[in-house]
Amino acid sequence: MRRSAVAWRLAAGAGLLAVGWSAIASPRVARADVAAGQALRDAGGPAVDRAVVATTDLGSVYATLSASATLAVLGRRRDAADVAGVGLSAWACSEAAKRVFDRRRPYEADGTRRLLRPPAGSSFPSGHATVATAVGLTLAEGAAHPAGRAILSGLGPQVAASRVYAGVHYPSDVVGGAGLGTLLATAWRGPLGGLGRWVVARAVAVSTALARVLGAALAAGLRRRRAGRRA
């Protein structure tokens, strides 16, 4: 990625994060935030409800790890490490920020309709929007086809909109999450990515070794058990 593109992405990420934070800092912006979220929910219907419930967890840690495992099975180990590394980093950063801001969620503060089970943690920033944006942008850079890049780049906005529609986040929460995810995806293309892939590789190696040891121990136990029965 060229330096101008990196600078633009860093500025965009910081700007989105600042816009999201403004709704917490300004009561006037907070009122507009509530109204915008309600307008989005009012525009939907039963079909949109079902689509949102079915797709909103594309920004979850579980979806991230599933995608990483799938890429690894397909032989795309670098992409698998990128997805796991930047996805887990995005989740960790958003969880840390949630503890700092401790914002109540829309259904808690305003009685907003909620389509999902109550999520853990506070509202700002949206962890799903952070993870989906970071993973989507990271994968989009390596996509060979323009259509693939467009779909992957659109993952963050789609998940962000679904979190607002489902009543578990304010628009400013997902804007802030998109900003944080953009910053992380950009940083991942630098030294952070190299370090992250090394950590993921070591973690996979250790997990594989432990699984082999456990498998060998279980197999040995079964053999002894069968031998005891025959005796």
Features:
231 residues, mainly alpha, Vanadium-containing Chloroperoxidase, domain 1, 2 domains, globular
- CATH C-level class of the largest domain is Mainly Alpha
The rounded Rg comes to: 21 Å
Number of strand elements: 0
State the helical fraction.
over 70%
Low-pLDDT segments = none
Task: Report the CATH architecture of the largest domain.
Answer: Up-down Bundle
Description:
This protein is mainly α and 231 residues long. It folds into two domains: 3-189, Up-down Bundle (Vanadium-containing Chloroperoxidase, domain 1); 193-231. The chain is 80% helix and 0% strand. It is built from eleven helices and no strands. The protein has helices at residues 3-25, 27-42, 46-55, 61-73, 77-101, 106-109, 127-142, 146-153, 155-165, 171-188, 191-230. Helix 7 packs antiparallel against helix 9 (155-165). The termini are far apart.
Provide a quick synopsis of the model.
With 231 residues, this protein is mainly alpha-helical. The protein has helices spanning 3-25, 27-42, 46-55, 61-73, 77-101, 106-109, 127-142, 146-153, 155-165, 171-188, 191-230. It has 2 domains: 3-189, Vanadium-containing Chloroperoxidase, domain 1, CATH 1.20.144.10; 193-231.
List the helices and strands and how they pair.
Elements: H1 3-25, H2 27-42, H3 46-55, H4 61-73, H5 77-101, H6 106-109, H7 127-142, H8 146-153, H9 155-165, H10 171-188, H11 191-230
